[in-house]
Design brief:
2,3-Dihydroxybiphenyl 1,2-Dioxygenase, domain 1; 4-stranded mixed beta sheet; 8 strands; 22% helix; 133 residues; 35% strand; alpha/beta
């Protein structure tokens, strides 16, 4: 059986993105390569890493669509759980995240979306939903 152990997002500037994720979401850097071309956040079971585009392209030769904050969001999200979605949303926007969808509450679950400085869509939620049909 395969298990997801890591998600890596390709970016222009790894140290800048790591600093943003700390300022916006309180996620500390647990690793940054000596060359600054790869780093990881302290995100729990699933590691979220960032690699520069040149490092990514050294691994494979095929082209890919680069996430960019001035382009439409790519079709995926990182979901972060918070006890206070409104405060997390406000903190992220204050740190430079683009407001994408303001906090809404459905029943006991609150959810909001922001875009990180490198263009990644971030869902902020008060509860992790098992299935969204």
């Amino acid at each position: 059986m395969l298990q997801c152990v890591k998600a890596i997002i390709y970016v222009d500037n790894v140290p800048e993105v790591l600093d943003f994720y700390y300022q916006a979401f309180g996620l500390a850097t647990i690793m940054l390569s000596e060359m600054g071309d790869y780093g990881e956040l302290d995100t729990g079971e699933i590691v979220v890493g960032f690699a520069t585009h040149p490092l990514a392209q050294s691994q494979f030769k095929q082209n890919y669509i680069r996430s960019h904050p001035k382009q439409p969001a790519l079709g995926f999200e990182l979901m972060l759980q918070s006890d206070n979605v409104l405060a997390a949303y406000d903190k992220a926007v204050q740190a430079g995240a683009e407001p994408f969808s303001p906090p809404i509450t459905k029943g006991t679950c609150s959810k909001a979306y922001v875009r990180a400085i490198e263009g990644t869509l971030i869902a902020l939620t008060s509860a992790v939903v098992e299935s969204e049909n």
